[in-house]
Amino acid sequence: MTDCVVTMTASAYYPRQSEPHQKFDKSISSVAGDFRHLAPVVVMAALREAGTTVCRPVDRFELDLPEQAHGRLTALLGRLGAVVVEAAGSLGYIRLAGHLPSARVPDLASRLPDLAGGEGVLTTRFDHHAPVTDDEPPVRRRRGPDPADRDAWFRDVPR
After folding, report:
1. Which uninterrupted H or E stretch holds 127?
2. Which of 25, 45, 61, 13 is nearest to 149 (CA)?
3. How far apart (Å, rounded) are the C-alpha atoms in residues 91 and 24?
4. Is the confidence at residue 131, as pLDDT, over 70?
5. Can you give the pLDDT at residue 147?
6. Beta-carbon contacts of residue 57 (< 8 Å; ≥ 6 apart)
7. Torsion region of 134: left, alpha or beta (phi above 0 gives left; psi -120 to 50 gives alpha)
8. pTM tops 0.70, yes or no
9. Which of 89, 113, 111 is nearest to 100 (CA)?
10. What does the CA dihedral 96, 111, 58, 99 come to, rounded to 10 degrees?
11. Is the pLDDT of residue 21 over 60?
């Protein structure tokens, strides 16, 4: 999740000490760490309620290549999930421009020299984020308990 701002609009502290002037007992009162441990659970609940969409970065690419490599490279672009939006040719060369998921750029760059006979030129730059259209969005391996599973979270996060 990037470019997200979370604003806390209210909070409260209710000490549960039974007698005045008694020593502080962490086990029966809230401490700052309790609020820090609760924040991931609240953010996960808010994301679920908001109906967020998983997006991925997409690069704009421009690819100059010899005409004889056009078919092979167009097929590769299709397999990599690219969308060609412009194609123009002159003097034995073709320029393709379009969008390609950023994670696939290294695949294209590594295969380009062989497919274009060393004459291909690829330039890319970040363009936008787009919703993931695959059946399953990418998932990062989690370190520690999942804040979406409240029971596991509060069992495994120390107090």
Report:
1. strand 121-131
2. 45
3. 82
4. yes
5. 86
6. 101, 102, 103, 126, 128, 129
7. beta
8. no
9. 111
10. 20
11. no
**Tokens at 135, concatenated:** 């059946």
- Give which of 102, 112, 98, 101 is closest to 62, Cα–Cα: 98
Orientation of helix 70-79 relative to helix 105-115, angle to 10°: 160
What does DSSP say about strands 83-90 and 121-131: parallel, antiparallel, or unpaired?
unpaired
- Burial of residue 154, with CB atoms counted within 10 A of its CB: 0-12 exposed, 13-18 middle, 19 or more buried: middle
Cα distances (Å, whole numbers) of residue 97 to 47, 61, 62, 108: 35, 5, 4, 14
Residue 18 clears pLDDT 60, i.e. is over it: no
Q: What is the pLDDT of residues 22-43, one digit of tens each?
A: 665 656 666 677 777 888 888 8
d(CA 65, CA 29): 68
Secondary structure letter of residue 22 according to DSSP? P
- Amino acid type, 23: K
